[in-house]
Amino acid sequence: MKSLFTRFFCLTLLLIGLTSFVHAADRSKNLAPRYRHWINEEVNYIIGTEEKKQFLSLQSDEERDHYIEHFWQSLNPTPTAATNPYKQEHYRRLAYVNEHYGFIDAQNGWRTDQGRIYITLGAPKQVVTYPAARNVRPIEIWFYQGQNPALPPYFSILFYKRSATEPYTIYSPYQDGPIRLTTTLEDLNDQKRAIKTIRNSLGDEVAKTTLSLLPSEPVNLDDYAPSLTSDMLIGTIEGLPDNPLTKSMRTERRNNEQTISTVYYGSDTTQFDSAVFREAGDRMTASYMIHYREPQAELIGQLPNGHQGYSVTVQTTVLTVAGKPVYRDVEQLGGEVTGDVQANNARTKLFGAEGRLPLAPGKYQLMISLTNNLTKAGTRKMGEFTVPDTKNVSWGMSKLLAFAPQPPTQHPDQHLPFSVAGVRFVPRGTDSVSLHHGEPLRIAFQLWSKSSDPAAVAARKINVHYAYGSFGDSAHPQEQWEELSGTDFDAAGNLLTGRTFPTTDLAPGNYRMVVTAVDQQTHEKAYSTINFKIVDDSDNESIDLWTTYNAVAADARAMATDDYKRGISAVASGNGAAGTAWLQQSLKDDPSFSQALVKLVAFYSADEPGAEGRDKEIAALSHQYALTHELDESTAIRLAQANAKTGDLPQAKHILEFELGFQPPNQKLYEAMAEVYQQMGNTAEASEFRKRAAAL
């Protein structure tokens, strides 16, 4: 009766979906062929229901062209680039499925189940084919490692052929069951016998996949008792365009695009500067500044409270050099100005925004958007920088930071941009800086050395050579020398130093400063450069700068957040070992920081699915760190499964009970709890939780 009801329910949903599809298809018949082809055959698996309705409601080809352009732009991971990687990958997938599935002449590979999955998810990480097993239909299993937050971290998709001439069909453990995969009459209507046939022909791993598409989900090969988890997975894949997470990401990207494109100035209107400094524990942090090249009078205006001031949004997106997203920060910065004098002063100076980005060593891209919330005008800038691996380098130097006349201030209790060892500098530039004639050039930089025995460090001598001159000048550059002692380095091997250079004898023009530091003990050299321009004040060139930034208290949560970002950046850069270490450090900083726990469990699970060694590590996490309401259901289930596999059933039960205490009725949690009770020998409770799961 349950199976009959389920099939009737699914058939009802199918008929509803087909009705909507038919109405949509009918409306698309009135379109020109190229628009009909686009909506029905090109983007039909990636466009949402509401998006499709909007497209079909358009009245002119001009509106349709505009819609298509913005549709692709809303999916572009790098909207400032000349190309759209998402669009290129989508059409590559479309071409691939039309060539490899269906009939090539008809170009209908996109209609097949394999075509749909390939277009939606891309190429599987691994494919295993069983074309001619005894008493089993041809089977193909695709293994995926999920990159979409709406999907599990790893899962399988199983396809089978009903007959030799038919294309592969997607398989459902609940709706189809193993009897769909076997060919013997003895297995007809006997799921348990069909499982046995598959085990005998293809082995336990394939048999397990026929009961669950999730490798982490426990199954009983001696019985047919599949959960709905695999069917929910298939449904989620097919409904990804309408998934709340997908819609939220697209809406957010569109909103950002609308905010920026109200008035788009382009990247040449701003300058990007960055510098990387090392903190204790080999923590690397990049500080950046984006500032306008011209004064922005409209930046100062009337705030919602009626006072004069400014309000800006700074959105930073960190990507690997390959374009893989690492993380994104959005900051709201603003303040009031007192009186007309201060307001006019702000309007006539260059404005900039500062930020800090904790990162693991590697090469990164940074996309920054700076938006004036009062006028909805904005600009975007792309920058690239490298975070050096100072842990494995015995000698190095940061960029040269040109800083403002304001004396550096100490803020050991705050995380601030352009702060080194708790000392905050007001930045003027790192790649280039403009100075008034006669204004001194003030630079600061950090030297990096490996920490060593204090007695050995004390004997070291560092020679620093400063040389500066104008571009193309045949005259000998001006030079200064300085000797530093090894005792100036801190325990982590860092030394913050700097120097001030007069410019009164320099004529207006462009110059370059080169700083070279030589370790006299090892003869290793490190150098850095900065360009500077002496401005003739009679030219009335605006070079004075004021900036804004967020100050963050240097508490345990802030430290944990920074180390978490270093962890996910290391993972994104392909350094899993370093990523794991930073995520573990994040939890040491703040044991209640569930975001790090979630990411660490996901990383362990994705690294070696089902490996017993990882189960022990995952189970240990649930004992080391506190469970909080920030913990998501997938992480709680994985923690419980790991404890169950390692024999700690009471802890597995405790984790699930904690999660069920604040989660709404949840099918996955009920199934996981049923499995734990089953392993504990409490079949009555196991049956009760299975009933609850089935009811959902």
Give a nutshell description of this structure:
With 696 residues, the chain is α+β, with helices and mostly antiparallel strands.
Structure, explained:
- With 696 residues, the protein is α+β, with helices and mostly antiparallel strands.
- It is built from 20 helices and 29 strands.
- The strands form 7 sheets. Strands 5, 8, 9, 10, 12 and 13 form a 6-stranded mixed beta sheet that branches. Strands 14, 15, 20, 22 and 25 form a 5-stranded antiparallel beta sheet that branches.
- The radius of gyration is 31 Å and the shape is globular.
- The N terminus is likely disordered.
How do the helices and strands line up, and which of them pair or pack?
Blueprint: H1 2-28, H2 33-42, H3 49-56, H4 61-74, H5 85-100, H6 113-121, E1 126-130, E2 139-145, E3 154-160, E4 169-170, H7 191-202, H8 204-211, H9 229-238, H10 244-261, E5 263-264, E6 270-279, E7 283-292, E8 301-302, E9 308-320, E10 325-336, H11 339-348, E11 350-358, E12 362-372, E13 377-387, E14 395-397, E15 401-403, E16 409-410, E17 414-415, E18 419-420, E19 423-424, E20 427-429, E21 432-436, E22 441-449, H12 454-458, E23 461-470, E24 478-485, E25 494-501, E26 509-519, E27 525-535, E28 545-548, E29 552-553, H13 556-572, H14 576-589, H15 594-607, H16 612-624, H17 633-645, H18 649-660, H19 667-680, H20 683-695
Parallel strand pairs: 5-13, 11-28, 21-27
Antiparallel strand pairs: 1-2, 2-3, 3-4, 6-7, 7-11, 8-9, 9-10, 9-12, 12-13, 14-22, 15-20, 15-22, 16-19, 17-29, 18-19, 22-25, 23-24, 23-26, 26-27
Helix pairs in contact: 5-6, 7-8, 13-14, 14-15, 15-16, 16-17, 17-18, 17-19, 18-19, 19-20
